[in-house]
Design goal:
Layout (H helix, E strand, L loop, with lengths): L15 H29 L6 H21 L5 H19 L9 H10 L4 H15 L7 H14 L2
Helix pairs in contact: 2-3, 2-6, 3-5, 3-6, 4-5, 5-6
């Protein structure tokens, strides 16, 4: 026996506009995924050269920017030294594929036991600590800039 449709509550059909909207959404999602994959593929493969050298060049440029900002009076020397320390740790974190940019000085010292390449970074971060945490300490921006560049350029 077949169930009969009730004339009181007939089944409601979806409007054709909903199907058109669903088709447009599917097309947009496909285009978005395709475009995202294309952009990621282009940025993942830099055009020639050593990726470490590209990261090094960016780090050196940011280190120079911190010094220029301090000399122009845009930031204090103490803030510039803090920025230099962050840039060095960021570079070492990227180049060494570790978490040096988030590590504290004791963490860096422990990591340097396993990875001797971190020793100059540890020395630099330890050298900048008084300038960052002691308000009475002298801040030598030129020396900090020189040492930061030295750590980045000597990384191998």
């Amino acid at each position: 026996m077949r169930a009969e449709r009730s004339p009181i509550n007939p089944p409601a059909d979806y409007s054709s506009w909903w199907w058109a909207l669903a088709a447009v959404c599917v097309v947009l999602i496909v285009v978005l995924v395709w475009r995202t994959r294309r952009v990621l593929r282009e940025t993942a493969a830099p055009a020639g050269g050593d990726p470490l050298e590209a990261v090094r060049a960016e780090a050196l440029a940011r280190i120079d920017d911190w010094r220029a900002a301090a000399e122009a009076g845009e930031v204090t020397a103490r803030a510039a030294v803090s920025g230099l320390s962050a840039e060095v740790r960021r570079f070492v974190g990227l180049a060494g594929e570790g978490d040096a940019d988030y590590a504290t000085l004791p963490d860096l010292r422990r990591q340097a036991v396993k990875d001797p390449r971190l020793a100059p970074t540890v020395d630099f971060v330890a050298w900048t600590a008084p300038a960052l945490f002691d308000p009475t300490a002298d801040v030598d921006l030129a020396a900090a800039h020189h040492r930061a560049r030295e750590v980045v350029t000597s990384w191998h």
